[in-house]
Amino acid sequence: MEINLLKKQLELIIKAPVHMLNMELQEWQDLTEIANSEESTLARSAVLKDRSLWLCGIHNHKVQVLEANTSGLAETEVKLIELLMAAFDGERSLPLAGGKKDDEYRSQQLGAWIQEQLEQGNYQTVIPEPLAWKTKIQGMMLPFLLGWENHSAMDISHVKLNKLLRSYFGGDIVLLPLKEEWYVLVGEKLLTEIRDESEEGLDTERDMLSALSQGMYELITNEWVGGGFHLAVGDPIDPGKALVSTAFLLRETLAIGRIFHVTEQIHLPWELRLERLIYSIPDAQRQRFVEDTGNPIGMLNDEETLTTLDTFFQLDCNVSETAKRLYIHRNTLLYRLDKFKQETGLDVRSFHDAVIVKLGMLLYKVTNRE
Predict the structure, then answer these.
(1) H-only helix segments in 224-298
(2) Which 3 state secondary structure label does DSSP give 47?
(3) How many angstroms separate the CA atoms of 244 and 256, rounded?
(4) How, if at all, do strands 141-148 and 174-177 pair?
(5) CB-count exposure of residue 212 (10 Å: 0-12, 13-18, 19+)
(6) DSSP structural state of residue 237
(7) Other beta carbons within 10 Å of 221
(8) Which residues make beta-bridge pairs with 181?
(9) How many CB atoms lie within 10 A of CB 57?
(10) Is 181 helix (H, G, I), strand (E, B) or coil?
(11) Cβ(143)–Cβ(233) under 8 Å?
(12) What is the pTM of this model?
């Protein structure tokens, strides 16, 4: 791509003049605060107040730079322009930041693009060719999403998190920063290797994904940042087609998991189907359900009742196992269930009534969290 054509395209995108500058290489390095070293690297861009500058050529210790006022642009738009410049740099074979720094840069650009698609609701869009990271993103991959409670993804070091996860998965991963989460992609062949090495023989692929998530959570908790984060995992995907839609699914999974399962940190989409349905019901419809069922939700304000019913449903309505889990006598549990029946007219040992109460509990949780 010729630089003059690139300049015109940028002017059309940002709807503002783009100027071409020439400067000494050292001046550019000083401007971008990159020190000389044996492994000399060049920054691709610089932001100075309301101006953005992009490196687009180098020859005999001189550089060509495009400059524009980007104060009116969103951060994601600026980053996408940087990516366009990076593609242009690749065509010109510039000696830009390589290796780990280049991987981090590309992950930031792809992450910014995914975030923009999520904000615009473009969930079915595919990765554009300039962003296609073909050396890293290829074949079927396992998607994970990490979200922290008290800070954004930008507060977490890409280098440290990447190193930690590589040690866990035993090879290269793709680590993409979104606005509030880290999006992790791992080659699907890992799943095959784990299945082949497993002596226990897990029942299903999703069992493996659950086990991988548990190990990943424990590693990050014990070796680095401690608790305070949540993790979601999805089925293997073709990232070229489903990268954004899967990010949306996993982000929604984290949100739903935090509402309905406040004591858990690992959230699996296939275990939250009913919760996802409840989450999508409008407020008016929720209220109508409560009124039609005689307001059993009122009883759920009692912590003992809520805990008892939660445990009862988790253990498939098994009275003996529920009593053991709650460390109470079987007759004590039966007394609580009978008391609930007297107050609400609903017997949770009946399938029909159990379904109604379970839905009521989910509505109670989502209503109270909101």
Answers:
(1) 239-260, 273-280, 283-292
(2) strand
(3) 18
(4) unpaired
(5) buried
(6) B
(7) 14
(8) 147
(9) 16
(10) strand
(11) yes
(12) 0.64
Six token digits for residue 290:
């409560």
Q: For residues 141 and 130, what is the distance between their CA atoms, to the nearest angstrom? A: 20
The span from the CA of 188 to the CA of 186, in Å, is: 6
Q: Locate 94 and state its tokens.
A: 């510039």
Residue 249 tokens, joined: 């699914």
Sign of CA dihedral 217, 219, 220, 225: positive
Q: Locate 84 and state its tokens.
A: 């366009």
CB distance 304 to 336 below 8 Å: yes
- CB contact set of 333 (below 8 Å; sequence gap of 6+): 308, 312, 319, 322, 323, 326
Positive or negative, the CA dihedral 51, 55, 57, 59 is positive
Q: Are strands 51-59 and 45-48 parallel, antiparallel or unpaired?
A: antiparallel
**163-189 pLDDT, tens per residue?**
889 888 887 799 999 888 999 999 877
pLDDT attached to residue 90: 54
If the chain, 370 residues long, is cut into consecutive pieces of 10 residues, what is the mean pLDDT of each piece? 69 80 81 50 73 75 80 71 64 46 79 89 85 81 88 69 88 87 87 59 74 90 74 91 94 91 89 87 78 64 85 90 92 91 88 87 72
For residue 322, the one-letter residue type is: T
Output the six-digit token pair for 223: 């070796």
* Both tokens assigned to 200: 């226990």
User: What is the C-alpha separation between 63 and 26, in angstroms, rounded?
Assistant: 9
Burial class of 38 by CB neighbour count within 10 A (0 to 12, 13 to 18, 19+) = exposed
Residue 35 confidence (pLDDT): 35
Structure tokens at 82: 């940087």
Q: Please give the single-letter amino acid code of residue 313.
A: F
